[in-house]
Amino acid sequence: MVEKNIKSLLKNGYFIYNVKDKKKLNFLKDDIFKESKKILKGKIKKNFFNEFHNINISNQKLNEYRLKLMKKVNVGEKFSKKGYEIFQEIIQKIFGLDIVAQKNVNLVIQKPNDPSQISVHRDAPPNSDYELVVWVPLVNTFKSKNMYILDKNNTSKLIKKIKKFSNNNKKSEKIMDFYYSFAFNKSKKHKLRFGQALIFWTGLIHCVPENQEKETRWSLNFRFKNTFSPYGTKGFPDYFAVANSSPITKLALEKKGSDFN
Ligand SMILES: [Fe+2]
Predict the structure, then answer these.
(1) Residue 221: inside a domain, yes or no?
(2) How far is the CA of 40 from the centre of ligand 1 (A)?
(3) Is 108 among the domain residues?
(4) Which residues surround ligand 1, an ion (CB under 5 A)?
(5) Domain total of the chain
(6) Which residues contact 102 (CB under 8 A, 6 or more apart)?
(7) What was the pLDDT predicted at 260?
(8) pLDDT value, residue 259
(9) Structural domain boundaries, residue 213
């Protein structure tokens, strides 16, 4: 399984990972549910996650709720640490033993027919090229209740085309139209179950479509990289915290902080 994942990462720039310890993933989901209950009080309904859009809440209140929730789940880097535990095996295979994890885990709630979150982009730059994103849906995804990913080959094709258009002074609206339509047409629309994660390289273009299904999409984003690889604009220790250290790093740090230096 791990070999297959690595092979796909090298070829496509991403892979779909089946979480082995689903209990830990359930812990995160339960925690979100419990905190939501506290914040939203009597508004919680059956099938909370998928039916979230049926809760009567203004956009402003929704934003306040999301910020409160993110603050709660990120206290003491709780979710970041849990995320590392969940993906430790595959993350160590990719990065080695010296690993940092993004301290704040991002939580995205996408209600049906909300046009505000449509986006086509890649994370690096400004993020590091030496970084991976672990995208974890908290509900089953399908059709537009999903995130689409452009593989390495198509990302490279699209970037080359855009550069060529820019050099030929093509109108910027035309370039943007091409960019969006190429990305949406050529991207892979994988159905992901809760219990699976899309692990992708920051260099890949990905698309967030408008959710036109009748269920709300919930997802978490974790980010990992090797402690000593180059950072993007989000550096250490402001954005990343050490998740694991190799024995040799532990010795070196011990020497640094002691009197046998
Ligand atoms: Fe992104």
Answers:
(1) yes
(2) 28
(3) yes
(4) 123
(5) 1
(6) 80, 221, 222, 223, 224, 234, 239, 240
(7) 63
(8) 63
(9) 2-150+187-244
SS3 (DSSP) at 253? helix
Pairwise pLDDT comparison (250 vs 45), residue with the higher score: 250
Q: Is it the case that residue 69 has pLDDT exceeding 80?
A: yes
* Ligand 1 midpoint to CA 255 (Å): 39
Ligand 1 geometric centre to CA of 199 (Å): 12
Across the range 1-16, mean pLDDT stands at 96
**254, part of any domain:** no
| pLDDT one-digit tens code per residue, 192-243 | 999 999 999 999 999 999 999 999 999 999 999 999 999 999 888 889 999 9
Looking at residue 62, which CATH number applies to its domain?
A: 2.60.120.620
Number of H helices, E strands in the chain: 7, 10
Q: Output the CA 123–ligand 1 centroid distance in Å.
A: 5
* Enclosing H/E stretch for 101: strand 99-102
- Determine contact, residues 139/199, Cβ cutoff 8 Å: no
For residue 134, being part of any structural domain is answered with yes
131-137 and 196-201 strand pairing: antiparallel
